[in-house]
Design brief:
Chain lengths: ~450, ~220
Amino acid sequence: MNPVSRGIRNAFRNTSRTFSIVIILGLSIGLALAMLVADQSVNNKINTVKASVGNTITVTPAGFSRFSSVNNSLTTSQLAPLSKLANVTGVEESFTDRLITIGSNTNLPFGNTKSSATTSLSSPVKLKAKAGRRFFYVGGGGANFSPANFSLPITFLATNNPNQINTGNLAIVSGKMINANLDDNQALVSQAMATKNNLKVGSTFTAYSTTLSVEGIFSNSTQSANNTVVVSLPTGQAISNKSGVVTSAVVYVNSLDNLASVTNAVKNKLGSAADVTSSQQQANQTVAPLDSVKSISLYSLIGAVIAGSLIILLTMVMIVRERTREIGVIKAIGASNGRISLQFMSEAVTLTLMGAVVGLIFAILAASPITHTLVNNSATSNRQFGFGGPGAAFRAAGPRFISGGRGAGGFLRDNFTNIHAAVGWSVLGFGLLSAIVIAVIGSAGVAYFISKIRPAVVMRTE
Amino acid sequence: MLTVKDLKKSYKSGDVTVAAVNGISLSLKEGQFASIVGRSGSGKSTLLSLLGALDKPSSGQIFVDNQDITQLHDKDLIKYRCKTIGFVFQSYNLVPNLTALENVMLPMEFGGISKEDRHSRASLLLDQVGLSADKQTRKPARLSGGEQQRVAIARALANKPKLILADEPTGNLDSQTGTMIFDLLHNLSKSQNTTIIVVTHDNEIAGKTDKTFKLSDGKLITKKS
Ligand SMILES: Nc1ncnc2c1ncn2[C@@H]1O[C@H](COP(=O)(O)OP(=O)(O)OP(=O)(O)O)[C@@H](O)[C@H]1O
Ligand SMILES: [Mg+2]
């Protein structure tokens, strides 16, 4: 027997009390661990999101709105200096517009879709609606909605970097890639568009009253890409009669470290003519709601550790008071304060370690539900980031979209579904560490009470 | 061996100061068996706790082998309690969660005796006080009062103390068992040449000791040699 083994044995002296203390302690340690897991998984996600957005800067005309795209725009000559900035690896310029199908019904219950730009193509995208609702959407459940003679406006994308679209979720399945620099009236269309309009490689169609021929057909699974016609930037600018006009540009930067400085340089070059947003800013916006989850979980973690320490401290104070006489006896037969404190510390550590085991089990069971509850609550309070809400069908697909980039909404939605709460080794280690910290804090207070007990108490009969 | 000079101890409770021990002087030779008698509240237990260094006196000196223990520092006091003194209490005061054997080994652990020696010495001592082997591994709750007091005596002897202090060791026992416990202590003092001081209410027991100190209101009144 030594103080440590006596402490361990004493931990089981009063089984029903030991049981309840271990359970309470286990719950608070378990909560701490579950919060740690939540914190870690959210942190991982934030880092992945930040890493995945890439080193790009989006430039759009100041006050640009997708619905009045061409009114307010930048020009190729304005953007020319950007590619010469230090650390810039490339500038992708594009011009987007919406084309109305010739002869289609433009007087619809949800708004006028009149536009001067027309095409002979019909959209392959079918609108859907739920009964009694005024919202229309693409994809998902619900009945097909087809007013007489209706076609969704078609997205017209002219880009100086059509190769970029090929690296995304988009692949040429027949014909070939268009030449980005030639004004040669060649176009790329989606498989869905080709099927809907009976097009093959070499077929022709009209846009802005100009005849274009199909150079290549690409496959894609998104409705937005399916509803898009891609041409070279010179072709697009020429046939739309908007010489030199660019509706958005993406500046590629060689490394994440230079992103901020290049963003400032681009802002200086373009002044008030353009809105400049770096992908990092977008990512920060995206993960903002997750940051609040992070702080909730951090505070809960600290709170749970403090609660655990208090529980064990009060328990040990209670035990010491209860064993005042016994402590007096062993003092009277020659034990030092340090030795007695060591014995009680060992008892406290035993109780907390058992609590940690219960806590770990609790954490394994609860980490996932707690993480998801936290994240989902923050999701509902940040619903403005949601993607695919009412009117999405009318959103013209921008160049970032078709080239595989995704809006903030898309990222966030992934965050909510893909956060994996897992109990790993680090959590196990932390559980052990927090248990020991809790036990040491708990028993340190007890050492004081032990030193206050006078051995003379043993002379008094109970 | 033991010399006490003008020992005083007073307790303050509220405005009243109680002089529990009020100027006691006495001395004992090695191997003497002494008893302390007196009415309840006369200061017997207080005197014993001062001799055993469980409490500090208000004034006075206690010489044990020519060393004044009232001048010792905490560390040396712990050593004094551990090595020089053996205590036996009226209510046994065994550690309830330890077996009889472990209770006897406890002071040896504090005294730094090796593990192997502790065990063999503890069971030898328990044999000597007459606790059979099957009872040595029992916890106190499963032993009779007389058996518990035997264990307590074995524990008091564990570190071969020079001075054994017993506060009414037979007070909770029937007279037959009390006499057996007393005889046990008596034999010890003779065979081991250990100095023993016993507080008792039993005049018959007091009559058998070498020396009796009679206490009244914290003072020694008569002395019988
Ligand atoms: N810790 C204390 N605080 C205050 N007064 C005390 C304390 N300990 C003892 N006393 C007082 O000191 C006096 C002597 O007490 P003590 O316990 O020494 O008596 P005793 O002779 O052992 O009595 P008994 O035969 O009943 O055990 C009593 O009046 C008691 O009330
Ligand atoms: Mg008494």
